[in-house]
């Protein structure tokens, strides 16, 4: 998978997450969702966002690994499989 594709997927995930957050915060402020700690962020969204952050970090670490390989040996790295990216 090309790095630019990963970049666009990451940006898209963040944009969707931001939109969901804005909608969820609005719903929390209207009292439509559970918000036990009263920070206007629905508790279910706080949990989901923590999971998403973990996933993004996994992808980000994979990309960093590939970039490091490309910096070290451009010809070899481009021929290698990058198993870290398939896991993401
Ligand atoms: Ca909350």
Explained architecture:
The chain is 77% helix and 0% strand. With 88 residues, it is mainly α. The chain has one domain (3-87). α1 runs antiparallel to α2 (43-72). The structure holds calcium ion (CA). The site of calcium ion has 6 residues, from α2.
Overall average residue pLDDT: 83
Topology as a string of helices (H) and strands (E): HHHH
Small molecules held by this entry: calcium ion
What is the subunit organization of this protein?
A: single chain
Q: Number of helix segments?
A: 4
Strand content: under 5%
Distance between the termini: 11 Å
Number of domains: 1
Helix content percent band: over 70%
Principal-axis shape equals elongated
Computed over alpha carbons, the radius of gyration is 18 Å
- Number of β-strand runs: 0
Question: Structural class of the secondary elements?
Answer: mainly alpha
The main β sheet shows up as: none
Uncertain runs are none
How would you briefly describe this protein structure?
With 88 residues, the chain is an all-alpha fold. Helix content is 77%, strand content 0%. The protein has helices at residues 3-29, 43-72, 74-79, 83-87.
Compile the SSE list and pairings:
Layout: H1 3-29, H2 43-72, H3 74-79, H4 83-87
Helix pairs in contact: 1-2
Bound molecules: calcium ion.
What brief labels describe this structure?
single chain; 88 residues; mainly alpha; 4 helices; binds calcium ion
